[in-house]
Amino acid sequence: FGVHLIPGFVLWKFCQWHMDDRRMLLQQLREFRMEMAECEVESDRGFIEGKLTTWFGGVEEFELVVRNEVAELAAQQLEDGGPIPWRMLFTASLPHIFMFGSAVVDAVIRADWPVAAHVALTGIGISCFTDAIAVGAGLRLADRI
Questions:
Q1: Three-class SS string for the chain?
Q2: For 64, what's the count of Cα atoms within 13 Å in the CB-facing half-sphere?
Q3: pTM
Q4: Per-residue confidence in pLDDT tens, the chain, 145 aa
Q5: In degrees to the nearest 10, what's the CA dihedral of 24, 19, 82, 8?
Q6: 122 vs 74, 103, 118, 125, 138, CA distance in Å?
Q7: Which residue, 65, 76, 122, 72, is CA-closest to 97?
């Protein structure tokens, strides 16, 4: 956890932005109104509204789908994935994985099995648990402050 303390101060603002973006996404979906949507070319609005009428029965029906079903699905996926998806945590942990992997290979080449085992277990602990706990705790704390 201490490894993340100093970089954590630097990354704190990014954590807050990330959690604010997640919250804003859900708010925008729950309050979605077609009239507030921006069109690059305003003449496209009529075409889009016509398609929404064909597909959903009307703009109001589409808005209800976005506010209820899409918002609920997004909220569920964000909740299930935690503050950051596991694959992103894994990617962020790659430097630790490579560093500890290199040290394990070196210990194996030297036939120093106790050191290889110790470094492997430490690397697994840091890469799989400490990184995830530190990032998750930091993001959850950033969401509260």
A1: CHHHHHHHHHHHHHHHHHHHHHHHHHHHHHCCCHHHCCCCCCCHHHHHHHHHHHHHCCHHHHHHHHHHHHHHHHHHHHHHCCCCCHHHHHHHHHHHHHHHHHHHHHHHHCCCHHHHHHHHHHHHHHHHHHHHHHHHHHHHHHHHC
A2: 7
A3: 0.63
A4: 555 666 667 777 787 888 899 899 999 999 999 989 888 898 899 999 999 999 999 999 999 999 999 999 999 988 887 777 778 778 888 888 999 999 999 999 999 999 999 999 999 988 888 777 777 777 778 777 7
A5: 170
A6: 36, 11, 6, 5, 22
A7: 122
